[in-house]
Amino acid sequence: xxxxxxxxxxxxxxxxxxxxxxxxxxxxxxxxxxxxxxxxxxxxxxxxxxxxxxxxxxxxxxxxxxxxxxxxxxxxxxxxxxxxxxxxxxxxxxxxxxxxxxxxxxxxxxxxxxxxxxxxxxxxxxxxxxxxxxxxxxxxxxxxxxxxxxxxxxxxxxxxxxxxxxxxxxxxxxxxxxxxxxxxxxxxxxxxxxxxxxxxxxxxxxxxxxxxxxxxxxxxxxxxxxxxxxxxxxxxxxxxxxxxxxxxxxxxxxxxxxxxxxxxxxxxxxxxxxxxxxxxxxxxxxxxxxxxxxxxxxxxxxxxxxxxxxxxxxxxxxxxxx
Amino acid sequence: xxxxxxxxxxxxxxxxxxxxxxxxxxxxxxxxxxxxxxxxxxxxxxxxxxxxxxxxxxxxxxxxxxxxxxxxxxxxxxxxxxxxxxxxxxxxxxxxxxxxxxxxxxxxxxxxxxxxxxxxxxxxxxxxxxxxxxxxxxxxxxxxxxxxxxxxxxxxxxxxxxxxxxxxxxxxxxxxxxxxxxxxxxxxxxxxxxxxxxxxxxxxxxxxxxxxxxxxxxxxxxxxxxxxxxxxxxxxxxxxxxxxxxxxxxxxxxxxxxxxxxxxxxxxxxxxxxxxxxxxxxxxxxxxxxxxxxxxxxxxxxxxxxxxxxxxxxxxxxxxxx
Amino acid sequence: xxxxxxxxxxxxxxxxxxxxxxxxxxxxxxxxxxxxxxxxxxxxxxxxxxxxxxxxxxxxxxxxxxxxxxxxxxxxxxxxxxxxxxxxxxxxxxxxxxxxxxxxxxxxxxxxxxxxxxxxxxxxxxxxxxxxxxxxxxxxxxxxxxxxxxxxxxxxxxxxxxxxxxxxxxxxxxxxxxxxxxxxxxxxxxxxxxxxxxxxxxxxxxxxxxxxxxxxxxxxxxxxxxxxxxxxxxxxxxxxxxxxxxxxxxxxxxxxxxxxxxxxxxxxxxxxxxxxxxxxxxxxxxxxxxxxxxxxxxxxxxxxxxxxxxxxxxxxxxxxxx
Amino acid sequence: xxxxxxxxxxxxxxxxxxxxxxxxxxxxxxxxxxxxxxxxxxxxxxxxxxxxxxxxxxxxxxxxxxxxxxxxxxxxxxxxxxxxxxxxxxxxxxxxxxxxxxxxxxxxxxxxxxxxxxxxxxxxxxxxxxxxxxxxxxxxxxxxxxxxxxxxxxxxxxxxxxxxxxxxxxxxxxxxxxxxxxxxxxxxxxxxxxxxxxxxxxxxxxxxxxxxxxxxxxxxxxxxxxxxxxxxxxxxxxxxxxxxxxxxxxxxxxxxxxxxxxxxxxxxxxxxxxxxxxxxxxxxxxxxxxxxxxxxxxxxxxxxxxxxxxxxxxxxxxxxxx
Lengths: 322, 322, 322, 322
Known about the structure:
The structure is a homotetramer of 322-residue chains. Chain A is built from nine helices and 14 strands. The first copy, chain A, has helices at residues 12-21, 42-45, 78-84, 114-122, 132-146, 175-178, 193-203, 236-246, 292-306, and strands at residues 2-7, 27-33, 57-58, 68-71, 92-95, 110-111, 126-128, 154-160, 183-184, 211-217, 224-231, 253-256, 271-278, 281-288. In chain A, strand 6 (110-111), helix 4 (114-122) and strand 7 (126-128) form a beta-alpha-beta unit. The first copy, chain A, starts with a strand and ends in a 16-residue tail after the last helix. In chain A, helix 5 packs parallel to helix 7 and helix 5 (132-146) packs across helix 8 (236-246). Chain A is α/β, with parallel strands linked by helices and 322 residues long. The interface between A and B is medium-sized, with 19 and 19 residues.
């Protein structure tokens, strides 16, 4: 059994991680740290876990016997935590924040996108788990940069659910505002663009186009759908061949010949994409669950790879469907 | 033209009041007071009013020439405001809080439920506007107490939209939590029970039953549906006759022979109810918009009565339908 | 491994059953029958299963080697199917329709509510799986009738998600109509009342009260919340003791001292209820997922009991939470 | 008073038209034709109009005294209707279908986008009312083509509410499917592209770029948000000047310096757009209500222009806000 510990246990990504690890056949949850909720049962915060676990939050950090440590704190809090604590080398770290994602400040953390880095992840000791939008965007474009054929500007509109903004209440997460609503935010300048660009250029250094990214807030709780338009000189069959070939051994990423919809993947660690070709353009429509494949599920996928488990272990998750 | 002023202008009920008064043919909005938003355009807070008005919030109170003052502050703030300011007698007051609703502390305010008190309201100078749940519950039961035939316990389950809880973000108003969700709160002890009980007893002093009220939070933004079950010795036709007779001259309250649904009334000042009789029991299913008939629309309806306007003036509101 | 077969494979309950059985560690899905979809992949209908299975629907029925047959057809179709086919005695049957639920026409089918009939189910060969509303209502009242203390009328309002109405599009399942809406249907006369009454009387034959049941259609996809009010001479602590004692060995039914909300159970086989006592009345607020505990999850729970598996096998399901 | 008649009265656009015309101070609704619903009250189909009107549907067509005829039938039904009936010249026609929108088959119908054609509409006798997506796209781009500076490809992603697909139930309008969901349809080839292209070229004949349009189905009932990205050599202030200058006398189209959101316009005839400039690109984010400005509200706006009424007459509509 892998002994796992979680820091930042009261947030959304920790909740999703707990939902997975509690049922994971090869994991024992040693402790869940939360300063704000120490002493409470985990289900007092993640109320859907009532009846599934009697773990309590702790404010103690004890790394003895811990095999893997998940950092689920806010962006900017992971680095001070890692630098401020004497974490034994025997503890693998998976950080769900953006603190170690970029090459110029990775400090030995491997970028944990299995579809791009599977073999490196297998032997990694520290993982920077990708961003949710970044996961959807990269998975949409990897087959193209892998073949060195991405060119021109890429136009991406992607819509995220409300859980993407975390659990702290705000004006734009208020039900009265968000229900039946839609809006744009951080157009052209979303922070995930940097990690996307780094991955694309690591595959295809000569890519010179812009990634024009318009993020939107949707009237749903979970999930991201990205509509990605780029130049493509080929037929739809050539597109299918390129994408299916690239993802043929993927555990969770699939190419659909039917149109996709967001709820195909909600609650699961899957990524499904469909393709359309028209007049020299390729549309990739890609759906993931932002909390699962976009965060905590991918973290467990990385853990499985690091600990030589089957990649889908504990990740055969019932979809919500509706 | 009636010169109207609003205090507490940045909240939900003030927003709804503005949406109505801006288009009201007999009203001029003199000023909208808000300490927190003074100097801003009204549409910077109530963003849906962009393009409809260029009024700004003010932090000045000037009662010269004001005909009617709407108090849209939080519960408990109206009484100190009224007592702390020298409001001229020429200014009629309509208070949307609960501060003056109860007989033992009404201080001359008339309870503003037109279906119960229409003639008194016409000559009133100060109005305590009813609560939203209270409106739905009383309209469901008025024909029975008016005939003196309410008996036994009354069982009411009523579900409210998220706007019923105000605009301050909270855990239970977070979109991630509330979307597709349902929950009970304040069972048996909702604060609106007192005003309901007072009205029922003013019509039928010998009513001795309990009002068993289970309020619920629904996954919608606007509206209240109340399902009210009580004893009834009669046929469905007798029930229709009783209710239709009572409401035959109502401007906004209607009895439907078809099943009702919440969105029949959303966005409007209407109240629609349907009736079913079975085995000595009567079910009244009643729908209103909590912000309109349950708050600001009813406030305008009261203003229309007080100022001898047609009761529906400025309240012919396009329903949202979907 | 248990060899399972499904008839009526294209409907909602079959979809949910497949979502569970595909990941069930002790089940092999031998075939999934559907006249309308024969030849198609299962994921062409249940699109969220894309990437999880490559089973195709069949229009052939072959009972050789089948251990358990799930009937997921419409109400009224199961009995003709059973009577019209020569199903070997070696095949256990779990019927999700209402065809065999009532005592006067059960024909040897055992009513499959484990909290009421666990030991009988263990040795049963044919199971009539309970209705979704019926499950929520019975679980709310079982501790009372088990102690013989249910008395007076019981008032129940319960709200169901859109999946409760099946997948056939209709006016009241149209998104434009149902989103942000709420309505009552089949008040006083829902068909599940009969199975509820039979169970209650089997525990407490002298119960003489009425079950006054008001079903509602909610603006959510999955789940049922029932608010059940009944007489109770006791304190809240006595209520907790009674309920917790009754459910202390239940695998999926839990008593919460905190208020419950619907999404605590969505996606899972759990039933969670909270209790409130006031003035001689007990409110039981009970939440289940109508497709899981209210249908297919309970069917698998029954299968687990019949085949001597751990009751939670394959039913440790990640909640949706949001 | 203008005597108005409606054909195709049972559909979504007719319902919205009735919601407006019933309260329009200068309109008398002479009759509402519906073959399917003849004899029923209008509120039996458009249930939210209960209490607002007692008009019944008719299956008779009598053009005597009619000033304006609204055609609210399905696409492809208007032309046969017009050609098959002897409609007097004294009857103005406003067609909400796409039958007369294109230049090569307009047969004297004027394209009814007031922001493009206001003066022509004033003297028109027959109007082809624009499509909903087409309205949002054109309003986003008119100031650019008006100045002759649209160049390069335009990338548009626009998301529509469920009412955009009409009231006939279908798989993708089923609440269970659509709630909390998102999907792409008709990418690159939506039928509204043709009318958009014609308008753009009528202003700027030398425009040679492509309109790359990705339509999406959102989890909301009403509204369209379009995110439009195009080349722009200028500052944000120059963009504001261009757009505000173009729309300065518009009755319903407004440029916001704050980010827009869909519910700012839901229930109203307004169009609000925000602008962002980055690195040679301009993002126009545009919101309308698909049933109102995108259909029936714009039809009434056209009627107001044709009959020399104030453009906003009867269109001062309370927004839904939430």
